[in-house]
Amino acid sequence: MMTVVETAVAARVADAVKIYGVGDTQVRALDHVTVEFPAGRFTAIMGPSGSGKSTLMHCAAGLDTLTAGSAYIGGTELGGLNDRRLTVLRRERIGFVFQSFNLVPALTVRENITLPLDLAGADPDEEWVATLIDVIGLGDRLRHRPSELSGGQQQRVAVARALAGRPQVVFADEPTGNLDSRSGAEVLGLLRQAVDVMGQAVVMVTHDPSAAAHADEVLFLADGRLVDRMSGPTADGVLDRMKAFERGEGR
Ligand SMILES: Nc1ncnc2c1ncn2[C@@H]1O[C@H](COP(=O)(O)OP(=O)(O)OP(=O)(O)O)[C@@H](O)[C@H]1O
């Protein structure tokens, strides 16, 4: 019997076009982008300001809709879903980490972590939640509110929340943008662990070459197009590539 080895795709966009505005003010934020985000891999998205990184992430995650082309989470095409089903899909199959943490102030650390499961009406897998709490190192802070935590601690809670439902893919938008380098490195280490130990798919937008160096692959966007990719990135390698783009090479 033949064995077919397939890399599962956690998320992808095909021939994605996103146009904002009309007439003279029209902006083509994505210009025929095709990209796959494999399961069990950490992908970073880089590029100059305005190159379409956030747009790509938002459209891939069903937070915004494409003008043309298609976006999939696993085998599900997002364009075919109504608002209600899209909301359910985001809640059950995608984890989000934002630059500004976005924890619920009135809830405790523990309640924030299990919030996606509570909203989905799912019973938390207590063993899994305990593992996550252990990994983020905040076991003694479970009854605290977000305002009682440092930025780095809050972002570690946000990562645990994103992982709590074992989603098909985690999208992280500048997760280290508001953190000092040490807290940032802790958060990146957590995301890396989620990929290596849990087989999680992670997609991260970042401006920071040393953050991107934690990924398995870096995708480079310029003017809404995918212009390059780098496997096994190093911070220096990514920085050199970014500088080359700024000089206008390789477009
Ligand atoms: N809601 C919107 N309305 C109009 N234009 C928009 C909108 N959102 C983004 N754009 C434009 O689309 C282009 C891509 O924006 P996007 O935010 O995806 O870039 P980015 O690479 O994430 O930038 P940054 O690194 O500055 O966050 C930019 O020219 C931006 O001005």
Give structural notes.
It is a single chain. This protein is α/β, with parallel strands linked by helices and 251 residues long. The chain has one domain (38-62, 91-246): 3-Layer(aba) Sandwich (Rossmann fold), CATH 3.40.50. It has eight helices and ten strands. A six-stranded mixed beta sheet has the order 6-7-8-3-9-10, sandwiched between helices. Strand 7, helix 6 and strand 8 form a beta-alpha-beta unit. The chain is globular, with a radius of gyration of 18 Å. The mean pLDDT is 93. Adenosine-5'-triphosphate binds next to strand 2 and helix 1. Adenosine-5'-triphosphate (ATP) binds next to strand 2 and helix 1.
List the helices and strands and how they pair.
Elements: E1 9-20, E2 27-38, E3 42-46, H1 53-60, E4 68-73, E5 76-77, H2 83-93, E6 94-98, H3 109-119, H4 126-136, H5 151-164, E7 169-173, H6 181-198, E8 202-205, H7 209-212, E9 217-222, E10 225-231, H8 235-246
Parallel strand pairs: 3-8, 3-9, 6-7, 7-8
Antiparallel strand pairs: 1-2, 1-4, 4-5, 9-10
Helix pairs in contact: 3-5, 4-5, 5-6
The protein binds adenosine-5'-triphosphate.
The site of adenosine-5'-triphosphate has 12 residues, from strand 2 and helix 1.
